[in-house]
Amino acid sequence: MTLPSGMSEQTSGSEASDGEDAENNRSPRRRQLQAFQLFFPGATLLAGLAVPLWVLQYLGIMAPWSEGAANWHGHEMVFGYALAVVAGYLITKGSIVIVLGAFCTWLAARVVFMVLPLPAPVEAGVALAFPAVLFVLGGFQFLRAARSLRNAVFGLLLAAFLGAEALYQLGTFNLLPAGRDRGIILAIDLVVLLLFTMGGRVIAAATSGAIQRKGAHLKGVAQPRLERTGVVALAVMSLLDVLQWGEPAPAILAFVVAFIMILRLLRWRVWRVVDILDVSTLHLGYAWLAVGLLVRAGAQGLGVMSVLESTHVLTVGGLGTLSLAVMARVVLQRLRRPIMLPPVVLVAIGLVCAATVLRLIAFLPDLRASTIQAAALAWTGAFLAFGFFLLRLFRKQSPSK
Asked: Which is it for the CA torsion 137, 322, 44, 123, positive or negative?
């Protein structure tokens, strides 16, 4: 089974994915609005706001959103930002009403906390609605079409995000000890699992195509045995994190997966395509995931910091870099433009990498306050740059004829 239309990987600027072929056959009216045109700008805006707002709260500046801002920050970066990127990537079919409905469901969950506080049960229902919609529109298709467990992974992952949100909401009602932390940690684990699995499809295909364009051939690009081992290890790690069992075991599993990811990068021979930036940026994000897992394994194994604190390399470096690279590729692909990352996107990715290093240095107590502020500035600058890229590209898009 190949990936659904929205997840087909284009390996050169001139090749069209299955998703593009489907879009070419649609009527002009239905092509006026696609999910990525709403979700990618929404994700970019949220990412650019959530971090500086949390830093303001961290610095002691009081505001209406101050109470619970730390939990909100972690929640929104995963359930808000990451799932918006996933939605823009996966939702490739459906009418304008369906696309707008899905986006409004996502937007409502972002608004109720900061702008329009509602009774707690209503807020919980609104928060749960978007992961449920995303599963119906994206995950259910995987489960229905899957002929093996490997092909069902994406559907199961999207269902698990709904479970992670439920854990978080149980924590808000004090019905589950440390429920908020458990929900956020599970969601981060699921993001890592999602990106790890996508590496065997999207990054592998992009790497293979880039190497072929250089006149060489890459054998065994999918590496199914390594993928199965990594998926099982990450799944067990996620379960242990939720149950808060076996403190050394999650660290060991994180180390194992990091080793697998490094081995995959070596087998992809990434040094051969380092000059093809739309592919090497994917490798960079994948490498950040491996480094993040090593940091988590070391921190958790030695007990020097909490699991949540140790995950910033994963979320800032891994998720940040990969999401920017993937969003840029998807937008260029679906607008039928050559997949060549412009300088502004490369600047954005560079700023995210700087933010990752700064956030890691914030582990040092004497440097914590200053490096957190510097990391926030770099992160916000990255998404301002990426927002400029999206705005310029969408403005240049000619109306469908």
From this structure: positive
Alpha-carbon distance 289 to 312, whole Å?
A: 10
Q: What is the CATH number of the domain that holds 39?
A: 1.20.210.10
User: Is residue 401 one of the residues assigned to a domain?
Assistant: no
Residue with tokens 């490369």: 346
Q: Helices (H), strands (E): how many in the chain?
A: 18, 0
* Domain that includes residue 224, residue range: 5-396
Strands (E) across 188-243 are located at none
18 lies in some domain: yes
Number of domains within the chain? 1
Tell me the C-alpha distance between 314 and 294, whole Å: 10
CB atoms within 10 A of CB 397: 12
For residue 228, how many other CB atoms are within 10 A of its CB?
13
CA nearest neighbour of 289 among 273, 311, 267: 311
CB of 85 within 8 A of CB of 43? Answer: yes
Whole-angstrom distance, CA of residue 201 vs CA of residue 71? 33
What pLDDT is stored for residue 154 in this prediction?
85
What is the C-alpha separation between 50 and 77, in angstroms, rounded?
7
- In whole angstroms, give the CA distance from residue 143 to residue 137: 11
pLDDT tens digits for range 108-167: 999 887 777 788 899 999 999 999 999 999 888 878 777 777 778 888 999 999 999 999
**Angle at Cα 267 formed by Cα 264 and Cα 270, nearest 5°?**
90
Query: CA–CA separation, 348 vs 388, rounded Å?
Result: 10
pTM (2 d.p.): 0.89
Q: How buried is residue 146: exposed, middle or buried, by Cβ count under 10 Å (0-12/13-18/19+)?
A: middle
